[in-house]
Amino acid sequence: MAKFRSLLLVTLLASLSTAIAESWKVQDINLIIAAPGGSKKAEHKLEYPYAVQDLTADSTDVFKFSFKIDNKEKPHQAMVVFQSQDEFQDEIMVAASVKSSGKGRFDLNFNKADAKFKYGTRKYAMTFLVGGPKIEEPYKYTLGNIEVKGPSNPATRPVRLDYQAQPEIHHQFRSDQKLINTAISGLFTFLVLTPFAVLFFLWSKLGIKFEPFQAMASKPFDLINAVVFFGSIAGIEFVFYNYWTHVTLFPVLQALGGLSVVAFISGRYVLSAVQTRRLQRTAGSAKKEL
């Protein structure tokens, strides 16, 4: 058992050291400059750390790049970075597609590539990069330099933005809303309260009779229905008041839904009781006349 544990520990340490020391194995790196018709103008089989020099290409040429990766771990990214050797130091990244077999390639048509290739004739430094999540050290290979000739009508470089302090912004908040004239608001308040004054005046002329409530006192069920009915009506008026002052629509609809059901059910019982007493009173009056 002890020998088995020792063997297992040695195997784990060996695999760990192998994983730590593992690096990218790249071979068969080919670089081709092809004319629009497909004929080869230049071809280089590269091997680290050899770097190609004095490579030139026209604006209509195609840059063909291929390679093969022998690692079991496939790269997450593989690209060639072109960096202009002038004051602007523009970087153009061209990603390569890598198959499951480890073979990767891309074709770069300078005429259809990034607009930075069209700013005129410029020299670029080429760097080949390969990286993945399980191999810490990326593969970096300086391929050399290439001079790409600009088109007959070079593109205009965008004006570089000059980031400077801008003038201070002074916020102007909207002034308070002007209130309506006191006389006008008082007039409309009077118009709103006038119907209530007329209502109270008419009630005073008609007089308030408490006989129905006295009759209901002998029947507790009818009295409870009357109290619930008038209470629900008062609750509905209170909900309307809150809606006019501060409550939003949806809470009001919920409250009105409940109070309306209570008012409907209790109101039916109240009206039925009133109708019954009225019929009894009519029948009593008819008997007296007879």
Describe the 3D structure.
With 290 residues, this protein is an alpha+beta fold. The protein folds into two domains: 23-148, Immunoglobulin-like (Sandwich); 207-289. Helices cover 41% and strands 25% of the residues. It has a five-stranded antiparallel beta sheet with strand order 2-1-4-8-7, with no helix packed on it. It has a five-stranded mixed beta sheet with strand order 3-10-9-5-6, with no helix packed on it. One of its GO terms (cellular component) is oligosaccharyltransferase complex.
Tally of discrete structural domains: 2
- Characterize the biggest β-sheet: 5 strands, antiparallel
Structural class: alpha+beta
- The succession of helices and strands, N to C, reads HEEEEEEEEEEHHHH
Number of strands: 10
Question: What is the CATH C level class of the largest domain, in words?
Answer: Mainly Beta
By DSSP (H or I, 4+ residues per run), the number of helices equals: 5
Termini distance? 122 Å
What integer value in Å does the Rg equal?
47 Å
Signal peptide: 1-21
InterPro entries: Ribophorin_II_3rd, Ribophorin_II_C, Swp1
Main location: endoplasmic reticulum
Membrane topology: Multi-pass membrane protein
